[in-house]
Write a structure and sequence with these properties.
The chain is an alpha/beta fold. It contains five helices and four strands. α1 (about 35-45) packs across α4, α3 packs across α4 (about 115-130) and α4 (about 115-130) crosses α5.
């Protein structure tokens, strides 16, 4: 099991997609990938950034825990780890998302799995756009940005 960020060398077409989805150590595929890609692009534009490349990797709790220990020296479960490869306004990086943790969070927050998964995805994108959540104030601001971004997604535009 590799704990390094993913760098796929080949895609189905000659042109590499700006956003690509993978799963590592689990079987998971995101429905409506094209809708999610359009939504991410819309949020990135709203943040006045430029999407260069984004890989979203779905994995299990144990896999992400191993990455958290290996790369961040954090010995605890998390829903997402973001690896930026550029500073904003250029958006390029990997998002590793624990599907196990997203399921648990959805139950605890009394949200649908789909809504929580999209919140976690956009949380990582917002990190790549330069937003932080280390302080309580920053975390509250990040939550507002996540909520605003969810309203841009056709499935959650209440």
């Amino acid at each position: 099991m590799s704990l390094d960020p993913v760098f796929p060398s080949e895609f189905e077409s000659d042109e590499e997609p700006l956003v690509a989805f993978f799963s590592e150590d689990i079987s998971f595929s995101l429905p409506n990938e094209e809708t999610v890609i359009s939504w991410i692009e819309q949020v990135v534009i709203r943040e006045e950034c430029e999407l260069i490349g984004l890989q979203i990797v779905f994995c299990s709790d144990p896999y992400l825990l191993d990455m958290n220990v290996a790369h961040l020296n954090h010995d605890f479960f998390t829903d997402i780890i973001t690896f930026p490869y550029q500073r904003p306004p250029g958006i390029e990086g990997d998002l590793f998302i624990s599907i196990d943790r997203v399921k648990d969070n959805a139950i605890q927050l009394q949200q649908s799995f789909e809504r929580e998964l999209h919140r976690v995805i956009i949380h990582g994108v917002l990190h790549l756009c330069g937003h932080n959540d280390k302080s309580d104030e920053d975390a509250a601001a990040m939550r507002l940005l996540e909520d605003a971004a969810l309203l841009l997604h056709p499935a959650f535009s209440e």
